[in-house]
């Protein structure tokens, strides 16, 4: 049976008519809300399609979240551990910096998470699915998320804590320090 014949089959035509009817009904219902109408005007995406897409995305997030805690931890540890060992074996230092920065940010994040996990899980239902996406953002070289978070969050916190402890071991000159045996 060819595609043309399949489209002309009475069962297919009936299903298409019913689907179009329900899409039209959904479109009428969504028209009652200005948010959907504005969204449709700005994006040129029919509001019924946008609504169905959002429902599908939520369903996928919900289904992923069922087993997301171990998957999130595996993604946050297994691949970075492998790539960190691989980076240590290469002669350059740029990949070492990427993974050392990742581990600092990942550890900082896990430390903060350990204090507030119950509260976060209560108020944020798809936490582990979102955490998995966050970890991928941290890891992937295309985004350099770990380096961005290190520069904007971890380093300022470290500098603030380091400054408050009154450490006198810091060097204020920009001259290189020579280390030698005496």
Automatic annotation (TrEMBL):
The chain crosses the membrane at residues 49-79, 99-124. It comes from the Eukaryota. It holds the Pfam family TB2_DP1_HVA22. It is found in: Membrane. The keyword Thylakoid does not apply. It is a multi-pass membrane protein. Keywords: Membrane, Transmembrane, Transmembrane helix. InterPro entries: TB2_DP1_HVA22 (IPR004345). Coiled coil: none annotated. Its main location: membrane. One of its GO terms (cellular component) is membrane. The keyword Transmembrane applies. Belongs to the DP1 family. This is Protein YOP1. It comes from Rhodofomes roseus.
